[in-house]
Amino acid sequence: MRMKKIAMLGLALVLCLAVTGAGFAHWTDEVTIAGTVTTGNVDLDIVKVSGTWVYKIVDTGQIIVHHGDEPAPPAGAHILVASTTATYTETPTNVVTINGTNLFPCPWFYIDILLHYDGTIPAHLSITDVVFTDGGAWMQELIDSDQAYAKAYESDVNGTKGDEINLVNLQVHQCKYILIELYLHIPQTLADGTTTQNLTATGSCTITATQIEAP
Prior knowledge:
This protein is mainly β. The protein contains two helices and 13 strands.
């Protein structure tokens, strides 16, 4: 009888361990992976612009042509005869507005636009043809005869003119500076003999920075 009780007690202990054992966890270890993802941007900014001012000295009749930042007026009696100026805004979009006032034959009129690429990812630039909304025919003639054109140069924060570059699909990276110069010369007459007096032209083009696509 005693042996039977011991056997029953042992069986009960085994069953108890079998049942409670299901509640114990296996030994484990783990590695947690966590992180943050950020995206880059494409950012083309306007740094500064400059233009051309033509003065006449009243006493001598001397013509003074100044290219660059707006100068202090010359000493003595003078007249501001003509100018090409540029202003820009960066909000909500980057826009350079150019005004040519009272232009006439002989001087070359310049506009400088310094651009800075500050995007965090590489991009390439492209420029559209000028689209005219007014006076397109006579201005297009000047473009076709190289009397109105643009050039682009490597540059720096000071707008120093470096090597000439081609804006078509130009690859740029962060902190790249590009100097764009616009040149305009007014002839005495157009190809058909029409005088260039009292003409107006209005148009625009767009420079676009587009992300570089990975292969």
